[in-house]
Amino acid sequence: MQKEPRRVRETHHPLAEVVRFTHPTAFISWSRLPDRRLPAGPVWGLAPDLAIEVLSQGNTEAEMQRKLRDYFAAGVRLVWYVDPATRSARAFTAVDQVAELTEEQGLSGGDVLPGFELPLRDLFAKVPPARG
Fold first, then answer.
1. Distance (Å, rounded) from C-alpha 5 to C-alpha 42?
2. What pLDDT sits at residue 30?
3. Contact at 8 Å (CB) between 102 and 61?
4. Contact present, 28 and 12 (Cβ < 8 Å)
5. What is the CATH number of domain 8-123?
6. Most buried of 42, 83, 122, 131, CB within 10 angstroms?
7. Stretch 91-96: mean pLDDT, rounded?
């Protein structure tokens, strides 16, 4: 049985309070929440501004392309696919607009999370290198 997403309120980002979900992880700006309150129930009927997927061996390219199309069709503005195995990430601003990022680069919040930058080297610092 799959666990329900866990909601955690964080305030470490100076420009916005962040609502973070697990499986997948997402960000929704407080300004988009009705009356700036967390909706009741596990399903909110509101697309996140940012969706983050941490890839694993079980993910297929077809599955991730379908998810990407679904995210943008629902109104998501930014999608990050993080791949611990290759220590890389892809940042999508549309289905056909992607930035391929190496460990030497970083994720940017862009217009969704202005001022947010996450160097991939820092993100992967505690992830052991993949065995070849």
1. 7
2. 72
3. no
4. no
5. 3.90.1570.10
6. 83
7. 97
Query: Which pLDDT does position 89 carry in this prediction?
Result: 97
Close Cβ partners of 110 (under 8 Å, ≥ 6 residues apart): 78, 93
Contacts 24+ apart (CB under 8 A), 83-92: 83/55, 84/54, 84/55, 84/124, 84/127, 84/130, 85/55, 85/57, 85/130, 86/130, 87/120, 87/124, 87/127, 87/129, 87/130, 88/120, 89/120, 92/68
CB under 8 Å to 28, separation ≥6 — which residues? 19, 44, 46, 48, 49
Residue 132 has pLDDT above 60, yes or no: no
